[in-house]
Specification:
alpha/beta; 7 strands; elongated; 7-stranded mixed beta sheet; 42% helix
């Protein structure tokens, strides 16, 4: 545990989800594979569809509509729809097919193995503080056993622009009826979590479980208040 700034009073905690409370990388990898296989099997005209081809379509859509980045679920749904149209499906069939594919995506996206230490930590903290999930992604904590710990779940898109923009941070403070400086945000990303939180008045805890060196991080534009390597360190800290 390393301290870089003095910690002030803490009255609530906000948490990033992906790669903070669980390892999201294998989840996304498996989900991407399952979704491409689903598209190939469900839609004959996509039988030869490659993952790289779909990624290119997603990138082109983002280039055309940069603000779609703030709602990753809509970005993905639209990407499915555009893909189906490009492969010859009608607008109505593409829309229906995109909705069906999103259902399949959501199923695999929520098959997340949460470490026991995360449950232990959140269950203890939830007895002492209001907890809020603040995510740029589309994981639904209620579907993988974390929903009961959070008073609020805020997602980029429905609840504001993606971090590091301040929409969701300030939304959390407003709904909790607390000034932002009383919130401690916990996350793994030095830009979206650390810099985003600090720039909007929150305190920030960087979870560094990959043994990275903050002084060597090119993205470390703002120092967190604290750095921890294990989530359960929060129980000793506060």
């Amino acid at each position: 545990m390393h301290f870089y700034r003095p910690l002030g009073p803490i009255k609530a905690l906000t948490f990033d989800l992906d790669d903070t409370l669980y390892d999201n990388r294998p989840v996304i990898e498996r989900t991407e594979v399952e979704v491409i296989n689903f598209l190939r099997q469900q839609f004959p005209q996509l039988a030869d569809m490659e993952r790289a081809g779909f990624s290119k379509i997603r990138a082109q859509l983002l280039e055309q509509e940069p603000d779609i980045y703030h709602d990753v679920s809509e970005w993905r749904r639209r990407s499915f729809e555009v893909t189906l149209r490009l492969y010859g499906y009608s607008d109505s069939d593409a829309a229906d097919g995109a909705a069906l594919t999103m259902d399949h995506f959501s199923y695999w996206r929520s098959r997340i193995e949460v470490p026991p230490s995360t449950h232990t930590t959140l269950s203890l903290l939830a007895t002492r503080y209001p907890l809020v999930a603040v995510t740029n992604g589309n994981a639904n904590p209620a579907l993988f056993g974390l929903g009961d710990y959070f008073q609020l779940v805020l997602r980029a898109g429905p609840d504001g622009r993606a971090k590091p923009f301040g929409d969701m941070y300030l939304n959390a403070a407003r709904q909790l009826k607390l000034a932002p400086e009383y919130l401690l945000h916990v996350g793994d990303d030095l830009i979206t979590d650390v810099a985003g939180a600090i720039r909007h008045g929150l305190q920030a805890c960087w979870i560094n479980d990959r043994n990275r060196n903050l002084m060597h991080e090119s993205t470390g534009c703002l120092l967190p208040h604290i750095e921890i390597s294990r989530l359960d360190s929060l129980c000793r800290l506060i």
